[in-house]
Amino acid sequence: LSDRLSGVFDKLTKQGALSDEDVSVALREVRVALLEADVSLPVAREFIKAIQEKATGQAVTKSVTPGQQVVKIVHDELVHFLAGDDANAGELKIDSPPAPILMVGLQGSGKTTTTAKLAKRLKEKNKKKVLMASLDTNRPAAMEQLAILGGQIGVDTLPIIKGENAVAIAKRAKQQATLGGYDVYMLDTAGRLSIDDELMAEVEAVRDVATPRETMLVVDGLTGQDAVHTAENFDERIGISGVALTRMDGDGRGGAALSMRYVTGKPIKFVGLGEKMDALEEFHPERIAGRILGMGDIVSLVEKAQETIEAEQAERMMKRFKKGQFNMNDLKSQLEQMQKMGGMEGVMGMMPGMKKMAGKIEDAGFDDKMIKRQIALIQSMTKMERANPQIMQASRKKRVAKGAGQDVSDLNRLLKMQRQMGDMMKKMGKMGKGGMMKQAMN
Ligand code: GDP
Ligand code: MG
């Protein structure tokens, strides 16, 4: 009976693995979605290739098609990749006042608007005293524009002096920021319609006098493919520290985010969602990933199926445990759970009433290495032995230990643990719900 039950378990958790073919078919659609979202071709190609390798062989959740499963894997990879390991997305380095922040990008990308939005955020959220300076000497109106925005949000702007060049303005901004006791000063540079040498040389010169704490590249989220080229160029010549993606209130799908992250490795820190001064958000990788892929329904369907299965599985297990059934298959899944959640504490903490009892189990040293060795022992058992560990006699023990490259004493410890956990589960079952809760609260 136990064997049959564990067979059911297997079917529940795994109804098969993704084949090369499954993955290829699904990824063809994903590829189209990425390109439609304006992800650049080389980036889409590389991303797909990485997924192909990663997804093949992964398990398919019950009641989900292989294709849907692949979409979910792609989605998770996208989120993971967009998030990077940037622990403080949405934050700017503004230590050692006055901290210079350099804003760069093409003309019309939203630099001036984003400069003011960020200044407002720094003022209101971080309680910083901010000075803004426009270095856009090409278009006098641009300087006025920043001054007007400054007035709206109550942030000071550097007085405009006609005829001054960008480097001179940057120097004056630094001086003013120091004298005026500002925490941050922001330099809003001029842009061009496309990358040219003159623009880059000017921005370089400004960078050299300002030595910015952050160099934010502002990119129009609707530009798609071109964004890669822009980001690559600015990063090579100026060295950017992060990206602000504007116009994400439009119907662009945001493929630029993926491309830029891929090419520069620099984090996307902010997202612009309109012309208004508070239409700025910190970057949420989940949202952009959903938009790029445009398959949100499938993703939530798979998530739902996974949750259902986890719940069903947990319920079935609990039922068995209460009856005192706890074999090596159960122990194995508990150990695997531990691996995932970082040790005994994690697992025990999840189950009501377990925290207190955890101490009663022989402390076998639940580090990752140990868990791996224990799982190896279980894998070395036959199906029948796993389901009925009480049949383990000397000769079986010898064979199993040898198979896992371990000693019989190691196996004995494992068997003891399985018995102890089984006893514990049985006790919990007898306690009933009220008892468990009481225990958990102590
Ligand atoms: P700059 O040339 O890079 O300084 O660009 P601007 O800041 O002057 O912005 C150009 C235009 O884009 C202005 O009309 C802004 O109001 C608009 N803009 C900037 N950011 C956003 C955004 O996130 N969403 C929308 N819808 N418009 C924006
Ligand atoms: Mg501007």
UniProtKB/TrEMBL annotation:
GO terms for molecular function: 7S RNA binding; GTP binding; GTPase activity. This is Signal recognition particle protein. The lineage of its organism: Bacteria, Pseudomonadati, Pseudomonadota, Alphaproteobacteria, Rhodobacterales. The keyword rRNA processing does not apply. GTP binds at residues 105-112, 188-192, 246-249. Part of the signal recognition particle protein translocation system, which is composed of SRP and FtsY. SRP is a ribonucleoprotein composed of Ffh and a 4.5S RNA molecule. Belongs to the GTP-binding SRP family. SRP54 subfamily. Involved in targeting and insertion of nascent membrane proteins into the cytoplasmic membrane. Binds to the hydrophobic signal sequence of the ribosome-nascent chain (RNC) as it emerges from the ribosomes. The SRP-RNC complex is then targeted to the cytoplasmic membrane where it interacts with the SRP receptor FtsY. Interaction with FtsY leads to the transfer of the RNC complex to the Sec translocase for insertion into the membrane, the hydrolysis of GTP by both Ffh and FtsY, and the dissociation of the SRP-FtsY complex into the individual components. The keyword Nucleotide-binding applies. It is a peripheral membrane protein. It comes from Paramylibacter kogurei. Gene3D superfamilies: P-loop containing nucleotide triphosphate hydrolases, Signal recognition particle SRP54, nucleotide-binding domain, Signal recognition particle, SRP54 subunit, M-domain. One of its GO terms (biological process) is SRP-dependent cotranslational protein targeting to membrane. Keywords: Cytoplasm, GTP-binding, Hydrolase, Nucleotide-binding, Ribonucleoprotein, RNA-binding, Signal recognition particle. It is an enzyme of class 3 (hydrolase). The gene is ffh. It catalyses: GTP + H2O = GDP + phosphate + H(+). It is found in: Cell inner membrane; Cytoplasm. Composed of three domains: the N-terminal N domain, which is responsible for interactions with the ribosome, the central G domain, which binds GTP, and the C-terminal M domain, which binds the RNA and the signal sequence of the RNC. Residues 267-280 form the SRP54-type proteins GTP-binding domain. Its EC number is 3.6.5.4.
